[in-house]
Amino acid sequence: MKKSNVRLAATVLATSACFSPVVYAATSTEPGTEASWELVVAPFTHHWRKDSEHRHVVLLGLERIESNGSTMGGALFRNSFGQLSAYAYYGHEWDALMGAESLYFKLSGGIIYGYRGRYKDKVPLNVGGFSPAIIPAIGWRFTPKDAIQAAVLGKAGVTFSYDRRF
Question: If DSSP codes are grouped into helix, strand and coil, which group holds residue 9?
Answer without folding.
Answer: helix
